[in-house]
Amino acid sequence: MATIDKTQQDAEKLAAALAAVKHVKDGDVVGLGTGSTATLAIQELGKMVRAGLKITAAASSIRTEVLAKSFGIEILDLGSLSVIDISIDGADEFTESLDLIKGGGGALFREKIIATLSKNAIIVTDASKKVKKLGAFTVPVEVIPLAYQYVFDQVAKLGGKGILRQADHKTFITDNGNYIIDADFGLIDDPAKLNISLNQINGVLTNGLFIGLTSKVIMSDGTDIVIFE
Ligand code: 5RP
Q1: Homologous superfamily of 139-206 in CATH?
Q2: CB-CB contact of 183 with 148 (8 Å)
Q3: CA of 130 to the centre of ligand 1 (A)
Q4: What pLDDT sits at residue 170?
Q5: What is the DSSP string of 38-101?
Q6: End-to-end Cα, the chain, rounded Å
Q7: What is the ipTM metric for this complex?
Q8: What Cα–Cα distance (Å) separates residue 210 from each residue in 46, 103, 153?
């Protein structure tokens, strides 16, 4: 695997985030993602709100909600929304056909709801996230705790090697009170099929394959902004 220059990667994340927030207009309901790249976009939106931009927002995680509120961004109840004008979120991997793996930060369920409701679902990334085939990054599977062994067994039947996500030497708990199984399927030939198979397992809330949910990926390669749509 190619080594990644962290300073370069951070500069690319910022450039992509700054390009994305230009798409936000007065009056928009904005879906706010989670992770280091989404955070850069939220910080910029915060500055724009302080300068007079009028938006309301839905947050994909508790930490995003706290961050957005710290800038005075009004947060709506995600569950009450039927449509979101625009969302800005990061990704762990994406392909040119706009399939993604997300959920490295554990916020996949709310991120997926936001992407599903968004008229314009924008993903912001550095160049390291672009892949020919998804699967070098494991697929996060959010599982109701009392079904986790069953889900492990079913993931294994689909060819995945699962690990129960840990944080600070404890089982990681999502904002929804669930566990995450990070499943290694190797490079994935048919992500759309795997997405359906995973979601059909009883006890799975959702998984980190985002298929057909993205309007555009805004990527910085350090020199240019490259848009995939
Ligand atoms: C969180 C996510 C993030 O968007 C993804 O992990 C990318 O994060 P980062 O921008 O920090 O690389 O899906 O659940």
Answers
A1: ACT domain (3.30.70.260)
A2: no
A3: 13
A4: 97
A5: HHHHHHHHHHHHHTT---EEEESSHHHHHHHHHTTPEEP-GGG-S-EEEEEE--SEE-TT--EE
A6: 26
A7: 0.98
A8: 27, 10, 23
Does ligand 1 lie within 6 Å of residue 203's CB atom? no
pLDDT of residue 178: 98
Helix (H) or strand (E) holding 149: helix 148-157
What is the predicted pLDDT for the residue at 2?
58
The residue nearest atom 1 of ligand 1, judged by CA position, is: 105
pLDDT of residue 4: 76
Atom of ligand 1 nearest to the CA of 125: 10
Domain 6-131+211-220 top-level CATH class: alpha beta
Low-confidence ranges of the chain (pLDDT < 70): 1-2
Residue 145 phi, psi dihedral angles, 5° rounding: -50, -40
pTM of the predicted structure, to 2 decimals: 0.96
Question: How far is it, in rounded angstroms, from Cα 71 to Cα 69?
Answer: 5
pLDDT at 5: 87
Residue ranges per structural domain of the chain: 6-131+211-220, 139-206
Residue linked to tokens 């085939």: 133
CA–centroid distance, 197 to ligand 1, in Å, is 23
pLDDT single digits (tens) 210-221 = 999 999 999 999
On whether 89 is known to bind a ligand per the annotation, the reply is: yes
